[in-house]
Amino acid sequence: MAEASAYKEYLAGLAAGIATVVVGHPFDTVKVKLQKHNTEAHGIKYRNALHCTSRILKNEGVKGLYRGATSSFVGMAVEGSLFFGIYSQTKQSLQGEVRSSRPQIQVIIPAAAYAGAIISFVLCPSELVKCRMQVQGTDSLVLKHDRYSSPLDCAVKTIKTEGVKGIFRGGFATLLRESIGNSAFFCTYEYSRYYLRSQLNSISSEHIALPTAFSDIGIGIISGGLGGAAFWSTVLPLDVAKTVIQTSPDASRNPFQILSSIYRIAGFRGCYAGLNPTLARAFPANAAAIVAWEFSAKMLGIKRD
């Protein structure tokens, strides 16, 4: 029974990962281009996210916003499956036989940090390919003869020129981002979900019962969206450093050295490059992920606390 339940947890996570890419990839493309162009001393600078988006649409159309989406779909599908599965299994293990409906921060943080650290090894290669594909589109500083024809071409050329370790470039920054960020995500998600459920139960008992399906979707949207905003508000500077490390092969691999360099060039604002499209993406993408995760879990017969 335990093995069957674990298998279902990973299937539910797979649905969450796919939902994240479908909703969030266009925002991510804008974020990456802002991080690449607005933190360097040369090349075009975008005034804001709308300016960047309009230039992509003008030069490449809608498909430009989904540049690098193939590797992102693969990465996020695997990442979502592993992440939500590992988090759920680790959380259950830490809770033991004694279960509480109230969130337990001493359980949530280690479970989320551990899951985040594990999936960073999957995310790093797929995000490196995604980022390198994204920055070679509109206003790219990459020469045309040096551009990649596909995500596979990017991965093969990266390994050929930089070795196997090249595909894991930015791994330390990714590990820090995922372990810290997902701790913030799940703390926010679990506590907001608990609070909203308590409030709805109070309203339902005093007045009229609300349709369970609609209330569950509404809670999932709000708690997932808030969790996504908490994630990126906490770790965006690490993500900026990761983008620079992965798209500039000659850059330092130390995220703190990169952030120090960015601060000298672009100030504090440079360390939060891409903040607007990131937060604009965070709420709907993570809301979609949580709704997909919870709905899939319900369909698979998995009981949530």
Describe the structure.
This protein is mainly α and 305 residues long. It has ten helices and no strands. Helix 8 (212-247) crosses helix 10.
**What series of H and E elements makes up the topology?**
HHHHHHHHHH
As residue ranges, the low-confidence spans are: none
Helicity, as a percent range: over 70%
Count of beta strands: 0
Q: What is the molecular shape? A: globular
Strand content: under 5%
Number of helices: 10
The average pLDDT value, as a whole number, equals 84
Gyration radius, in Å: 20 Å
Task: Measure the end-to-end span.
Answer: 18 Å
Helix-and-strand structural type = mainly alpha
What is the fold's blueprint, element by element?
Layout: H1 2-37, H2 49-60, H3 69-95, H4 105-134, H5 151-162, H6 164-167, H7 171-206, H8 212-247, H9 255-271, H10 275-299
